[in-house]
Amino acid sequence: MENAINDAMITAIQLLDKQAVISNNLANISTTGFKEQLNYIINKNHNNTNMLDKEKVKEYYNFSQGILNYTERNLDCVVQNNGWLVVKDSHGQEAYTKNGHIKINKYGKLTIQNHPIVGNNCDISIPNGSNIKISSTGKIILINKTTKDVKDIIIGALKLVRCSDNNLLKRKNGLFYFNKKIKSYKHKNLNHDNNIRIKSGTLESSNVNPTKNMIDMISNARQFDIQMKIISMCDKNIEYANQLLNVNSQ
């Protein structure tokens, strides 16, 4: 009886964790470049009767591309060929994102969600009042219009990286990081990849499927109710058993 209650409680906790993940997915339907999170359970030890030791919940992400929205804004871009834009987090560490909604801050630096963008072996600084665009290879081009002609000047380039999906970890700040526990990788940060291409004037929307996530949320809620009923029934059975024991002992 106690095992049934224990198993039901653990299952209920796992369902609550899934609900939190689904809620986060639904809350980020409109977040540019957001990648859907999913959880799955790994059986660690088939011979162990304790579910806490037997099962481990692991998170992974759906890295499929979201719908492309054409904004015609020069600083909006989508990274193609499984590439990632590189930014620096609040601790100065390199992180990776699919959010291509680039802005220029008051210091003339390119940013994504207030995170400074990392250049390809350069420090990108945008002159005040400049009109710029991003080429397909990630070069930052200053559009210098004169009365006679138009001269394009390259003032920097974006750092673009490629990494296997299995080697990426997401943190609470919404950015992805390279899993540095992998022994085969010797460098501190990922290197620039010259084969990655940029599509400017476009943004990648979230790849969350709202219908699927709503169905999963309803299903999890029903399963949670079942686990609560199991616990309640077990409690009643224990109570009845105690009453019988008390009667027999008289």
TrEMBL record:
GO terms for cellular component: bacterial-type flagellum basal body, rod. Keywords: Bacterial flagellum, Cell projection, Cilium, Flagellum. InterPro entries: Flag_bb_rod_N, Flagellar_basal_body_rod_CS, Flagellar_FlgE/F/G, Flg_bb/hook_C_dom, FlgE/F/G-like, LlgE_F_G-like_D1. Residues 8-35 form the Flagellar basal body rod protein N-terminal domain. It is found in: Bacterial flagellum basal body. Residues 79-140 form the Flagellar hook protein FlgE/F/G-like D1 domain. Pfam families: Flg_bb_rod, Flg_bbr_C, LlgE_F_G_D1. Residues 200-244 form the Flagellar basal-body/hook protein C-terminal domain. One of its GO terms (biological process) is bacterial-type flagellum-dependent swarming motility. It comes from the Bacteria. The basal body constitutes a major portion of the flagellar organelle and consists of five rings (E,L,P,S, and M) mounted on a central rod. The rod consists of about 26 subunits of FlgG in the distal portion, and FlgB, FlgC and FlgF are thought to build up the proximal portion of the rod with about 6 subunits each. NCBIfam families: FlgEFG_subfam, PRK12640.1, PRK12641.1. Belongs to the flagella basal body rod proteins family. This is Flagellar basal-body rod protein FlgF. It comes from Buchnera aphidicola.
